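subagent[fold] <- orchestrator: predict structure for attached chain, return C-alpha cells only, no commentary.
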Amino acid sequence: MKNLKIEIKWAIFFAIMTLVWMVLEKLAGLHGKYIDYHLYLTNLFAIPAIWFMVMALKDKKKNYYAGIISYKQGLLSGIILSFFIALLSPLTQWVITFVISPEYFPNVIKRSVEIGYYKTTELAEANFNYKNYAINSTIFAFIFGVITTAISMIFIRSKPSN
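subagent[fold] -> orchestrator:
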C-alpha cells in the first residue's frame, strides 16, 4: 500500500479540485442564469485536470523513484492514479448533484428542451441525471487520465544518459 500512497493522495486531491471547480461553476452562474455557456466553459476543467495529473506524476518521480522514472513506470503510476480517480468519481458526482448544485439537472433539462436540443423533457431527463453522469464521469476519468499520462510521460520520464 505504501507504493500506492502518492496515487491515492493525488486521487483525493483531484476529487477535491473537482468539487471546488463545480462550486466555482455554480457561483459563476453556469448551473443557472448562464447555463447556455456551461457546455463550453466546463471544458476548461481540462486545464487543472491535466495540471494535477502532471503534478502527481512528478511527485511519484521525485518522491518514490528518487528523480529517475521510466516511461513504463510513469505509465503504470498514471493508470493506477486514473483508476483511483475513476473509483472516486461516483462519490464526487453524488456530492455535485445532491449537495453543491441540485438545481443543475432541472435547469439543464428545461433549457435543453427550450432550445430544441431535446424534443421532450423525458429525452432530456434520460441524459441529464445522476446515474448517467456518474457512469460517464467514471469512464471518462479513467480514459482521459490514461491518455494524459501517456502523453505527459514523454516529457516527465528520465532520459537515458549517454
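orchestrator: received. Logging for downstream: The chain has one domain: 2-156. Helices lie at 5-27, 35-41, 46-63, 71-100, 104-114, 121-127, 130-156.
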